[in-house]
Design a protein that fits this description.
240 residues; SMI1/KNR4-like; 2 domains; Knr4/Smi1-like domain-containing protein
């Protein structure tokens, strides 16, 4: 997780001063409540930012290990089975759909797929949404979307068209001076001296969306013209 902090601090210096890790005692308490060893990838995360993740985690809640432990200690029939490990709460007051690691769906290097499941009986059987390839990948995507790209005043959001693939788009970006970061592997992140971009590819799907930010409005306008002349990506109706 130190590499993630390094990425965040490239855009927001001193970002590490915003975060606070959880204690070993908090993790031991959670492990006892959960009833089995905690995933190592989660422990790495929690020791870095388990109590406060700053802007990266501003859109989720209830991720302090003591709060997670309470969910397991006060377990109800709404909770899914222990093959799912709770990581983040959804603060939506009307229809929350929380984030869980599926411990029976390993992905890479000891990591697991991330699913979203609302809290009502047997929701994991009927409403499970497989959302991210891995826990680390989700955090890197959120870092780009919620911390890095907002540092750029001019941004565009695109949806995939009918023919252009993620790999073809990556090649166009490299020709325009972007460098692909070594992680993540399923989705893709790119940087350039004056810009950054993220390509989010849904789990088990070839569909993707693309978000780019630049400092100069003229350079973004030129980028947009090149992109739309050479691909069939569709500009999103939603503002990034």
């Amino acid at each position: 997780m130190r590499e993630l902090i390094t990425l965040l601090e490239h855009y927001v210096p001193e970002y590490s001063s915003q975060v606070q890790g959880a204690s070993d005692w908090a993790l031991d308490n959670l492990e006892e409540a959960f009833g089995q060893p905690l995933p190592e990838v989660y422990q790495d995360f929690a020791r870095e930012m388990g109590k406060n993740g700053g802007a990266l985690l501003g859109h989720v809640d209830a991720y302090d290990p003591f709060d997670v432990a309470d969910k397991y200690q006060l377990a109800t029939e709404d909770n899914p089975p222990r093959r799912f490990f709770f990581v983040f709460g959804d603060p939506d007051p009307l229809s929350p759909s929380h984030y869980w690691l599926d411990l029976e769906a390993p992905s890479e290097d000891g990591d697991f797929q991330v699913v979203r499941i609302p809290l009502f009986p047997d929701a994991w059987k009927t409403k499970l949404d497989r959302r991210y390839f891995s826990f680390r990948e989700m955090l890197y995507i959120w870092a780009m979307e919620r911390v890095c790209l907002p540092c750029f005043p001019h941004r565009l959001l695109y949806q995939q068209g009918e023919t252009t693939t993620a790999e073809e788009l990556a090649r166009y970006l490299e020709k325009m001076g972007f460098v692909r970061l070594p992680y993540p592997r399923n989705s893709m992140l790119f940087e350039r001296d004056d810009a950054a971009a993220g390509l989010y590819r849904a789990l088990n799907s070839s569909r993707f969306e693309f978000h780019v930010g630049m400092r100069s409005p003229d350079k973004l306008k030129h980028f947009q013209a090149v992109l739309e002349d050479n691909t069939d990506l569709k500009k999103s109706i939603w503002e990034p």
